[in-house]
Amino acid sequence: MGTFSFIVFLWQVSFGIFIITFFLGLILKKWFFMLISFITALPIAYYFIGAENYLRIVAIIVPIVLLVLTVLLFKKRKNSFEIEAGT
User: Fold this and answer.
1) What are the residue boundaries of the structural domains of the chain, listed by start?
2) Which has more confidence, 66 or 3?
3) Is there a contact between 34 and 41 (Cβ–Cβ < 8 Å)?
4) CB atoms within 10 A of CB 58
5) What contacts 10, CB < 8 A, 6 or more positions away?
6) Residue 64 to residue 1: CA distance in whole angstroms
7) What pLDDT does residue 32 have?
8) Distance in angstroms (rounded) separating the CA atoms of residues 25 and 19
9) What are the φ/ψ torsions at residue 49 (nearest 5 degrees)?
10) Which residues contact 14 (CB under 8 A, 6 or more apart)?
11) Crossing angle, helix 6-28 and helix 31-48, to 10 degrees?
């Protein structure tokens, strides 16, 4: 058990959940999956903020893009319910 790192394991699980929920959110256009993707991308972004190259920019932009997509999908869902209700 000397080579097993629990922190690395959690990081990899977070990355896997981020990728899966991101694609589910895009394909199904569900804001909830995008929200989960945003939350699980935060530890990954925090890790890459310490980089001294282009990864720092990626670490800042990816969570912002995910949050914007989440808000847009949420507003789209809210507007579709208002249109169906006739208001």
Assistant:
1) 8-85
2) 66
3) no
4) 14
5) 43
6) 37
7) 92
8) 10
9) -60, -30
10) 40, 43, 44
11) 140
